[in-house]
Amino acid sequence: MTMNDRGGRARWMRTGGAAAILLGALGALGAGGQAWATDGYFSSGYGTQSKGLAGAGLAYPKDSLAIATNPAAGVALGDRVDVDVDYFQSGREAEIVGAGPDQSFGGNGGGPQPIPEFGLVRKVGANLALGLAVYGNGGMATDYKSNPFTRFGATGAAGVSLEQIFVSPTASFQFAPGQSLGVGINVAGQLFKAEGVGPFSGSSVNPANFTNRGSTSSVGYGGKIGYLGQLTPKLSVGAFWQSRTYSGKFGPYSGLFAGGGGFDIPSAYGAGVAYKATDRLDLVADIKRIDYSEVPAVGDPLNLLFAGKLFGSPGGPGFGWKDVTAYKLGANYRINPAWQVRAGWGYATSPVPSSQTLLNILAPGVVSNQLTVGATWTRSSGLEVSGYVLDAPKNTIHGSGSIPAGFGGGEANISLSELVVGVGFGWKH
After folding, report:
1. Nearest-CA neighbor of 302 among 248, 356, 266, 254?
2. What is the pLDDT of residues 316-343, one digit of tens each?
3. Which letter does DSSP use for residue 145 in this model?
4. Total structural domains in the chain?
5. Which end of the chain is more exposed for a tag (fewer CB within 10 A), N or C?
6. Would residue 209 count as lying in a domain?
7. Can you give the pTM of this predicted structure?
8. Nearest to 392 by CA among 92, 46, 50
9. 1 in a domain, yes or no?
10. Taking the alpha carbons of 347, 368, 373, 420 in that order, is the dihedral positive or negative?
């Protein structure tokens, strides 16, 4: 999540009202110059302890950011505050091969940047808890100093920047011992810009609002529900559903995105289990589904262009993303009352088919495997200090029929790798 354009920040603040004030406040905390994601363009998880488990935790809330995914977790957490920050570095690469000289391109702009998040939970009586989570939803960011689309007539640098931030108040209610339900409201802000993709603008209903229009913003609204249940002393389960977040349109890019600049945030849902294998060892597993295909700007394929649909039109071309299924496994081990360590493995199916790699040079959200380790140090005062490292090895999608003959043929290959280091501070009351 980034806010590196002052003009964009100003427009965001004007158009979002109270929500934008909260969004701007997070930017003031130091949201940096890149966006990261491992489940398509969603984050692998929320909260430093969950991220140390590869994002697992629907049935295993460890800190107040757990309500970002499962709002039912609040009652189980008690009173606590968490402030986390991640540092992210990626390797974004693209190749164009098989038509003219083969070329390789690097899409990384800038160095590691801080990405913060915040969570707060307060008990209100024995069976009710209120919470607030403020977090980034991953995003897309590429910066090609050498433009991969030059052979098609592009000039200057190329890239996109999509940043999404959620401000989510929640409430959870324990309706029976060890059984709780939760609801939350999602207020989402988005900031977007694109540059260097002029060769495609001739196939748009509005070529003047297609590329190089600076940063623009939108605010959207949605909701989520969750369940958390302790089935036996050793086994708990959790589940959530998050609605599609309906957002305002990106007017300056009304010629790029289907439906005149529409860019909603897709729905997601999932379930998880946690099992106490021993007094010290907990095992967790989650599965999550993200419905990228329900958002036309993201899910509509590029080949609609050759069926008479222009960029920016209703049902027009998009990035061609498929829905993503993410699997997460983790283990948490308590060494003693002061120290616990954890590790995790996650796998997400790639959203980008081999036929859709050309436009996804701009958005290569294709990492699949994620390996994590983490630890937490707890003080008797209630202070917790946690850290984690995530390594998502390089994954490449090789194009197949990806560059139309009208653009010279050949294939576009895209790659992404990621390394994330995070630290979190929690206070239990």
Report:
1. 356
2. 999 999 999 999 999 999 999 999 999 9
3. S
4. 1
5. C
6. yes
7. 0.91
8. 92
9. no
10. negative
